[in-house]
UniProtKB/TrEMBL annotation:
Gene3D superfamilies: 2.20.28.60, Citrate Synthase, domain 1 (1.10.580.10), Cytochrome P450-Terp, domain 2 (1.10.230.10). Coiled coil: none annotated. GO terms for cellular component: cytoplasm. The active site is at H281, D338. Pathway: Carbohydrate metabolism; tricarboxylic acid cycle; isocitrate from oxaloacetate: step 1/2. GO terms for molecular function: citrate synthase activity. PANTHER family: CITRATE SYNTHASE (PTHR42871:SF1). The keyword Acetylation does not apply. CDD domains: EcCS_like. Transmembrane segments: none annotated. Belongs to the citrate synthase family. This is Citrate synthase. Keywords: Acyltransferase, Transferase, Tricarboxylic acid cycle.
Length: 402
């Protein structure tokens, strides 16, 4: 709607688009998405090809620098990231200050933001491209360490240091699950499954957290502060937090006797705030292509690991019922990326409140690429307008006369 703001004492016309449902905020060459056809491409490469043939660090390089790396570029990128996985010991003191009930997403965003204190040159708006490159490597290297530490804090276990002999995902799994004085070998099936999930989450154009990263970055805030803000935006249940909510919902259905129809009816009831978590998407009005890949991966991973999860059967039953229900058909509500991802995370041994952290791990290169593009485009500070609906000019009334 274009509202005449003038009527309310403002001048000019304002395009009013709550939730920015149809407002473009930027020109971007990173991710192409066709929600009607269910197409997703990073830098022109189909997500299906990348998930099958590439690996997470290669996809990260592609997103951040625009091209698939040569072997030499890849090795350099991977080596630099490996070199920077350690974090300053004082960051552990910050970690120790969090109670064990702290949600790992809050811990993660705080630790990432703390990098502004350890690398204060990141605050300088005139930082060089070389400094930015180093910040990018640091973020890619340290976020898995922080993520694993957030989990260890919750468990009350000592934090594990990175093992730089391992690849990106294996190192993360070892930091998460290794216990003192116990040998821990990462199962390659688990590391590969995680790598694929991270690729599928790596970017998704101007979603809530990415827009947050760009808008915070547009004020020339540090890249660490911008990514920290993105983590907080991702946390909400309508965005990345949905993966946690999906499993909680599926478990509640299981506990309640597995009656999927009852929950489908609840989701359709406009007087009931319940929504079918993991269903619907602002942009996809067709199958989310990531959900298709993840559904198959969930079957494969559970099969390979010999895990029998009754929640997967409930998920499939719910999907089948929703796809044949007029309410969901009319509104083009399909499973999104979060519907099956939690089932894989569970099979990998990752606890529910770490699911959104896993999403952040995957989304990191996308946020970085979008922040970098925003900077390179010299984009103006993000500052939406509003249509004022409050009181007109009023005389001040002193407190004793109120
Ligand atoms: N269950 C039941 N009804 C739904 C659902 C759902 N999951 N999603 C949308 N609808 C209905 C709405 O009630 C509305 O119905 P109406 O037209 O009769 O009023 C219609 O479908 C359109 O929904 P909106 O909320 O207007 O769509 P919007 O684009 O604003 O929301 C969103 C998209 C937030 C993803 C929504 O579908 C939702 O809440 N889904 C559940 C949460 C979820 O899975 N989020 C993860 C998204 S993917 C991601 O962030 C990685």
């Amino acid at each position: 709607a274009i509202e005449i703001a003038k009527l309310r004492g403002q001048s000019g016309l304002i395009t009013l688009d709550p939730g920015f449902k149809n407002t473009g905020s930027t020109r971007s060459s990173i991710t192409f998405l066709d929600g009607e056809k269910g197409i997703l491409r990073y830098r022109g490469y189909n997500i299906e090809d990348l998930a099958e043939k590439s690996n997470f660090l290669e996809v990260s390089y592609l997103l951040i620098y625009g091209e698939l790396p040569t072997q030499e570029q890849y090795d350099q990128f991977a080596n630099e990231i490996t070199y920077h996985t350690l974090v300053h010991e004082d960051i552990k003191k910050i970690l120790d200050g969090f109670p064990s009930v702290a949600h790992p997403m809050g811990v993660l965003s705080s630790l990432i933001c703390s990098l502004t204190a350890f690398y204060p040159t990141s605050l300088d708006p005139n930082r060089t491209d070389e400094e930015i490159k180093l910040s990018i490597v640091r973020l890619m290297a340290k976020l898995p360490t922080f993520a694993a530490w957030a989990y260890k804090n919750k468990m009350g276990h000592p934090a594990n240091y990175p093992d730089n002999s391992l690849d990106y995902c294996s190192n993360f799994m070892k930091m998460m699950f290794a216990l003192p004085a116990e040998k821990y070998d990462v199962d390659p099936i688990i590391a590969n499954a995680l790598d694929k999930l991270l690729i599928l989450h790596a970017d998704h154009e101007q979603n809530c957290s990415t827009s947050t990263v760009r808008i915070v970055g547009s004020s020339q805030a540090s890249i660490y502060a911008s990514i920290s803000a993105g983590i907080n935006a991702l946390w909400g249940p309508l965005h990345g937090g949905a993966n946690q909510s999906v499993i909680e919902m599926l478990e509640a259905i299981k506990e309640d006797g597995g009656d999927t129809k009852k929950y489908l009816d609840k989701a359709k009831d406009k007087n009931d705030p319940f929504r079918l978590m993991g269903f619907g998407h602002r942009v996809y009005k067709n199958f989310d292509p990531r959900a298709k890949i993840i559904k198959k991966a969930a079957d494969d991973v559970l099969d390979k690991l010999g895990v029998d999860d009754p929640v997967l059967d409930i998920a499939k039953e719910l999907e089948e019922a929703a796809l044949n229900d007029q309410y969901f058909v009319d509104r083009k509500l399909y499973p999104n990326v979060d519907f099956y991802s939690g089932i894989i995370y569970r099979a990998l041994g990752i606890p529910t409140d770490m699911f959104t952290v896993m999403f952040a791990l995957g989304r990191l290169p996308g946020w970085i690429a979008q922040w970098k593009e925003m900077r390179e485009n010299n984009e103006p500070i993000g500052r939406p307008r509003q249509v004022y609906t409050g009181a007109n000019e009023r005389p001040y009334v002193s407190m004793k006369e109120r």
